[in-house]
Automatic annotation (TrEMBL):
<dbReference type="Pfam" id="PF00106">
    <property type="entry name" value="adh_short"/>
</dbReference>
<comment type="similarity">
    <text>Belongs to the short-chain dehydrogenases/reductases (SDR) family.</text>
</comment>
<dbReference type="GO" id="GO:0006703">
    <property type="term" value="P:estrogen biosynthetic process"/>
</dbReference>
<feature type="binding site">
    <location>
        <position position="141"/>
    </location>
    <ligand>
        <name>substrate</name>
    </ligand>
</feature>
<feature type="binding site">
    <location>
        <position position="64"/>
    </location>
    <ligand>
        <name>NADP(+)</name>
    </ligand>
</feature>
<keyword id="KW-0443">Lipid metabolism</keyword>
<dbReference type="InterPro" id="IPR036291">
    <property type="entry name" value="NAD(P)-bd_dom_sf"/>
</dbReference>
<keyword id="KW-0560">Oxidoreductase</keyword>
<feature type="active site" description="Proton acceptor">
    <location>
        <position position="154"/>
    </location>
</feature>
<feature type="binding site">
    <location>
        <begin position="10"/>
        <end position="38"/>
    </location>
    <ligand>
        <name>NADP(+)</name>
    </ligand>
</feature>
<dbReference type="InterPro" id="IPR020904">
    <property type="entry name" value="Sc_DH/Rdtase_CS"/>
</dbReference>
<dbReference type="GO" id="GO:0005829">
    <property type="term" value="C:cytosol"/>
</dbReference>
<dbReference type="GO" id="GO:0004303">
    <property type="term" value="F:estradiol 17-beta-dehydrogenase [NAD(P)+] activity"/>
</dbReference>
<dbReference type="InterPro" id="IPR011348">
    <property type="entry name" value="17beta_DH"/>
</dbReference>
<protein>
    <submittedName>
        <fullName>Retinol dehydrogenase 8</fullName>
    </submittedName>
</protein>
<feature type="binding site">
    <location>
        <position position="158"/>
    </location>
    <ligand>
        <name>NADP(+)</name>
    </ligand>
</feature>
<dbReference type="InterPro" id="IPR002347">
    <property type="entry name" value="SDR_fam"/>
</dbReference>
Amino acid sequence: MGTRRVLITGCSSGIGLAVAARLAKDELRRFKVVATMRDLNKRGPLERAAGDSLNKTLEIKELDACSEESIRECVNSLPDRRVDILVNNAGVGMIGPLECQSISDMKELFDTNFFGLARLVKELLPDMKRRQSGHIVVMSSVMGIQGLLFNDVYSASKFAVEGFCESLAVQAMKFNIKMTLVEPGPVVTEFERKVYEDADKMDLSGADEETVKIFREVYIPYSKKIFASLGQTPEEVAEASETLQVITAKEPPLRHQTNRLYMPLTALKHADPTGRLPLDTFYKMTFNHDRLFNASLGVLRLLQRKSKKL
Ligand SMILES: NC(=O)c1ccc[n+]([C@@H]2O[C@H](COP(=O)([O-])OP(=O)(O)OC[C@H]3O[C@@H](n4cnc5c(N)ncnc54)[C@H](OP(=O)(O)O)[C@@H]3O)[C@@H](O)[C@H]2O)c1
């Protein structure tokens, strides 16, 4: 197989940046990376991470996932418009009580997380069909499998992404196009910082006292502990066992969870079709078992450290 062109969205930071740099530095030089971002003024960190690969195996281009025109302009600028692998990574988060979130903010989030994907696939799919080859890799989330308290809208956007890809995958298969949903658990990136910052500034006057208390005093501290205990680095998500493995696999999976420590939580969903088991477990974890929650995180943290040492 010759060099494959990979177009990645949202490369100004986090997972997109790490995947772009990792693929560009591939020892076997299997990829030409088109690392895109909506604001080229933010290219500094990617340029530094790319090092010697900059303008050799990695080029940086502008692409706003919320604009069809920007997507088309970027794709038209590529030789033969050829994209062998799309890594649809651009995404935004949102946490908080639903009563305090505006419909226009929700629409904005869907415009990036779901319609951004739809726009990119619409632009690239016809070419991939004609060539009878291609791979669409989508940065979903474990929250595309299992919803989470105070992540109602974000989780809904990732469920939309999952339904979209699962439906399209069958048709894509007929044209020899592969589809993969990468499903990270918590990853320590700008994403985490931004959602906590937004949550701090959030006007919570629209919610009742008890809900505000649960959000501030239960959810936020638990969420921070989960990130500290189970959080992966973006480099881990990009590394050999994760995104790179998916991209180079001969038969890529439709779904790939990157965080083994989070898997027991997503497995609950498949263990009970009535949905009671995950519901009861998340309820108990949140409201009843503070000590159990902290103890389990302690054990997981230990396992995490041990597995990193191996
Ligand atoms: N961090 C986690 O815990 C986690 C877990 C599971 C899944 N994910 C998913 O992983 C993906 C990457 O997130 P991350 O953690 O790496 O967060 P991040 O560091 O905040 O990166 C998000 C990237 O998306 C870009 N972006 C946002 N809106 C865009 C638009 N309209 N057009 C183009 N780019 C846009 C951002 O650009 P700007 O710098 O211009 O804003 C940034 O480059 C997201 O889809 C997220 O949902 C993250």
